[in-house]
Amino acid sequence: METGHSGLAVQVTFMGEITAVIGKRSLEVSLPDEATVGDLLASLSRTYGDAFTCQAFVAPGRLHHTMLIFVDGEEIKERGGLSAKLGGGKVDVILLPMFGGG
Amino acid sequence: MAQSDLQSKVITTACGMCYVGCGVRVQVKNGVVVNIDGNPDNPVNRGNMCAKGKSVFMNQYNPNRVKVPLKRTNPKKGFDVDPGWQEISWDEAIGTIVTQLERIRTNPKKLWVYAWEVIGDSNFWVTHLGIAFGSPYVSVATSPVCGKVIHPVEFFTGGGFHQAPDLHYANYCILVGTQFGIAARSSYTHNVRDMADARARGMKLVVVDPVGGHAASKADEWIPIRPGTDAALGNSMLHVLLNELGIYDEAFLKNKTNAPYLVGADGRYVRDPKTNEPQVYDAADGTVKTHHDPSLRDPAITGSYKAQGRPARPSFELLREHVTKYSPEQTEEITTIPAATVRRIAREFGEAAQVGKTINIDGVDLPLRPVCVDWARGTQGHKHGFHNCWPLKLVNIVVGAVNVPGGILSTGAAGKFPHRWWPEGGADGMLEHGGQVMHAATHAKAFPGRTPTAPSRMDLAELFPFASHFQTVLPITHDDPSAFGLSEADKIEVLIHTPTNPVLGSWGDQKKVDSLLQSLKFIVGFAVEINEMTLFDDIVLPFPTALERYDFDSGTGQDLLGPCGQDDFYWQVRQPAVELPPGVRHPQEVCQEIADRLGILGDMYRILNYAYRLKGKHAMQPGQRYPVTDFIDRTVRCWFGEDHDLAWFREHGLIRHPRDVEEAYINPFLNARIPVYLEHFLDRGRELKAVVEREGLDWDLSDYKPLSEWMPCPSYDAIHKGDYDLIAVHFKFPYVYGSYGNENPWVDEICEHTSAYRILLNESVGRAKGIGDGDTVWLESPVYKVKATAKLTQCIHPEAVGVGGHFGHWAPGMPISRGKGVNFNALLPLDVDHVDKISNALDSCVQVKVYKYEVEAE
Known about the structure:
Distance between the termini of chain A: 40 Å
Structural class of chain A: alpha+beta
Number of strands of chain B: 33
Helix content of chain A: 10-25%
CATH architecture of chain A: Roll
Radius of gyration of chain A: 13 Å
Oligomer: heterodimer
CATH superfamily of the domain at 150-414 and 674-683 in chain B: Dimethylsulfoxide Reductase, domain 2
Largest sheet of chain A: 5 strands, mixed
CATH topology of the domain at 150-414 and 674-683 in chain B: Dimethylsulfoxide Reductase, domain 2
Number of domains of chain A: 1
CATH topology of chain A: Ubiquitin-like (UB roll)
Shape of chain A: globular
Radius of gyration of chain B: 26 Å
Order of helices and strands of chain A: EHEHEEEEE
Shape of chain B: globular
Largest sheet of chain B: 7 strands, mixed
Distance between the termini of chain B: 46 Å
């Protein structure tokens, strides 16, 4: 994980299927002050490789429809998507399971 | 029972004996349920009720119900082990659960949540507890068969959750491996009446099925088929339509599908070098251009062209050529259906499609295609389940009978009330995003699929890039994680499950199921009764019956599997007819307490607010606990306005809203194409090949092809080798839902009177084996041998054995159903070779022997 920068310490909570890649539920990520959600995901992609990238993105710049990301409790669709600023630095990254029949 | 008010009243609520959630009126006298009638105001069942629903109060007053939390005192587990239940307090039960979850907190991959509960809020609350905890193994689907193919297919061809024939306008309907509208499936009580009306007005019903069951009994024609050969039938029908009769909807294929997309010699689209968009040949000006070029007027779907200096052909041309391999004569050898029959039904279907005809509904001109092929569990449950089904869907697509009047419709795909949900196009101009009224009911997505990676999950989800659910292989990987590049450290340790019974209703080989469940260190289950799954629990939490519960979402009839066409959209809230027994709590409140004690209540609310679309003042707030009535009240107000609070729903039961033409028949209004050629299967297959080779995994990649082939199941090969002579298949009864509700004396009585507990054997086959009607026989598969009673009938394919329902209970807590019937799933081998590599479905046809029971043979 990127360290050594004096910028933003982002507290990331992982929920749902994405924890299969991360292996734990929470993580602190250091990013520049003006970093966006896209920057955070790029950082996670560098750290966790294809396993993360393939779970998160259907194509470069396009999240899977089951990826749900909140910044400071607000869904990023309400804040500009991947270009949303990380704000207070509390991010939830959630990969929802798919509903199915019984 | 204690009833504080001992009222006599009629309560309008939702049935809970299957997933439909029919509207019911429950008559209560002195605090006791005395009768249940269908609610005529509910658009799903329109006052109708089935035998399951009518008998629900026999479940309600089951003397063996679990009404207090229990803990196991016997650490030994197994199918025949007495758990040594001891009653405990809720505080001790939840304390024990929280302690176990705290133990695995740093590694949430140790938690598995298994949350199908027919239908109610617990489907979402229990799952979202697991999601918030960080578990990657959160599943609402308990069956390795149900929905495995239909959901991904429907997502990229219709944008909805499931398919259903448009019985309002269809004139010709073929059911393959399903008893839709007669004995099973979505909006059952609604579609039963629509099916009867359609038949009465002259719709021809053809049933293709190894078992001549309830659906066949209502059909104009029953066509027995050898199990697992439906792909050959589908491809053969396509061949007759496209190559022999030349019947297809050219305008639909050109403008609404990828039929004109040019494909090069490598099987991939020819793409524009600058935009990477697929290209087509415009016959109007003789040029190659992108599929969405504004100047495109006449995209060619036949012929051969040069694009970018290379030969290329439209996708449709490849499909048409591909199916020439499936002449009815060649297919007869595979399916046993006479060539003349295939040719005839294909012709009848094609002629009935009336390609080119339109209809005006409510002032809107729409294509009229009054034909459909419908399929479900019977065609899905095979080693090559996806490709066994896909050609059947294509039969609808080539005549344009998809989401138009009379054709096959997509359930729950679109709506405008109380908010808008709508499918959308995506990559390559193809349908990519489905619609969903609740975010919680996230759709499967098989286009463009996920990029495969090395497995890190015990369910091997990374190796199933198109599948919707992945739990099928868990008993296999837990048996030997190293075979899949996993380790002992990856194993799941804790399971939370809802009251259904996956031991009987899911998976296969019970030795492997037993081994999986024994390997888990801690299991907590909600329970109505002590069934076979509950026998493995460490903690049992009593679960309210449907007549005691509140649920915002009370059935699939209102969210995912509603009636099709212009039947009203509705939303119904489930409310209690009787009070909770003193020791029972609402599951929504139990989940809150567990999450609160774990310190993840706010996280769970955040996801639940999204799932239920709760916003602003209606959103649940961290730090607060909400009685179930408060949760439902804020949700209905958020959805339907402040004047529609819980009190309003308690009085009125439900809200209805008429659906307009756009909502009912979405295809003409979709700005997206649907596939006839699965180009993306090639890319995902190539990526998967690289992964399994790198990881040294033995993995069958033969299903990653853009056009479907019939590929035999292991059972087909086994009977042709002569090791076995019959194939066992499963079928459904209209009065039995899964293994849920079997402990009901009225349902049991119906089963006894209809010989439902017996296995079906073709009369001539039985006589040749010296077996008479009612004889006790051995039914033996490669993994299970069980005593059964034979029912000889002409209504089953001579190579098949029919096993209905999910019977064969042995749990001591089920004295009525114990020892009756056969558990079909136990017959099924459970290994990677029997799992569809596309859909994750377990092969549900299995080679068997049937022979007369002799005492000494035991």
